[in-house]
Specification:
Blueprint: E1 2-7, E2 10-15, E3 18-22, E4 48-50, H1 56-59, H2 62-67, E5 72-75, H3 77-85, E6 93-95, E7 102-104, E8 109-115, H4 121-132, H5 136-145, E9 151-158, E10 161-165, H6 173-179, E11 186-190, H7 197-208, E12 212-216, H8 232-241, E13 246-247, E14 255-257
Parallel strand pairs: 3-4, 4-5, 5-6, 10-11, 11-12, 12-13
Antiparallel strand pairs: 1-2, 1-14, 2-3, 7-8, 8-9, 9-10
Helix pairs in contact: 6-7, 7-8
Bound molecules: zinc ion.
Length: about 260
């Protein structure tokens, strides 16, 4: 399979001649680093789009991508309402209401698990918004227009290769312990939204014990809402304490073959 990181929590995945997207977010503001020059039409080959939660940096480009493709979307109820408000036909939306929902697409399987958003991101964002000064009103409007709803994590199985994607790092230990019952090849773990995010992300690796981990969401996608996260303390902890896990750092729009 081929995996292209779109920045933030976004991925384009090619699996046995099928293409799907996870949290595809391309919009940036001019201050974003790194920049993202891809347009919705550049990722229009996908048949399915999987969404972890309704926040703007996971959902806001989905209507544009769907308008240029035949993709159907899989998301929880609140994210579905946001998409309908943005003009997406509800026939193309699959609302996930069950923890453990499983779908087989032929070339791959996708399974959704109820998850949680990182807890302290709102005060952190509030702090960043205060720093935003005159931009405050505009930014808080964007944030309010995209409520998160039920957070999902997604497990994909492609030819016996398993990959688990989290859009936000709020999982409880109980949730991770339950997921750890299945051996994991690749973990995509988000590092954004909390002062101690490196320690939090390390817990994901410690419990899930993947063979490979790729840190995601550490980019400065929409300053001042976001900030580049120094992921080195995370990388160091994994290398020191999890000898069975390789860490790989991707560049935005880089494709790797697994
Ligand atoms: Zn979020």
């Amino acid at each position: 399979m081929k995996l292209r990181w779109l920045g933030t929590a976004g991925f384009e995945v090619e699996a046995n001649d099928q293409v799907f997207l996870i949290d595809p977010y391309l919009s940036r503001n001019p201050q974003a680093r790194p920049a993202q020059n891809l347009q919705p039409e550049d990722i229009s080959k996908a048949g399915q789009i999987f969404i972890t939660h309704g926040h703007f940096d996971h959902l806001c480009d989905v209507p544009n991508i769907m308008a240029r493709s035949t993709a159907s979307v899989y998301c929880s109820e609140i994210a579905a309402s946001t998409l309908v408000r943005a003009g997406v036909n509800s026939n193309r939306i699959n609302v996930i209401k069950t923890d453990g929902y499983l779908a087989d697409f032929g070339g791959y399987r996708a399974q959704a698990f109820f998850s949680r958003h990182i807890k302290f991101d709102l005060p952190l964002i509030a702090k960043r918004l205060l720093r935003a000064g005159t931009q405050y009103r505009r930014l808080s409007k964007i944030i309010k227009a995209y409520p998160k709803g039920q957070v999902l994590s997604w497990r994909f199985t492609i030819n016996e290769y398993t990959m688990h994607h989290f859009g936000s790092g709020g999982s409880t230990n109980k949730e991770l312990e339950r997921l750890s019952a299945f051996p994991l090849d690749l973990l995509l773990v988000p590092l954004q939204g909390h002062t101690h995010i490196c320690d939090i992300a390390f817990q994901y690796v410690r419990v899930l014990q993947p063979r490979l981990v790729i840190p995601i969401h550490q980019d400065d996608f929409y300053p001042p809402v976001s900030k580049t996260v120094d992921i080195q303390p995370f990388v160091k902890q994994v290398r020191e304490h999890c000898p069975g896990t390789e860490v790989r750092i991707m560049a935005v729009n880089e494709t790797i073959t697994l």
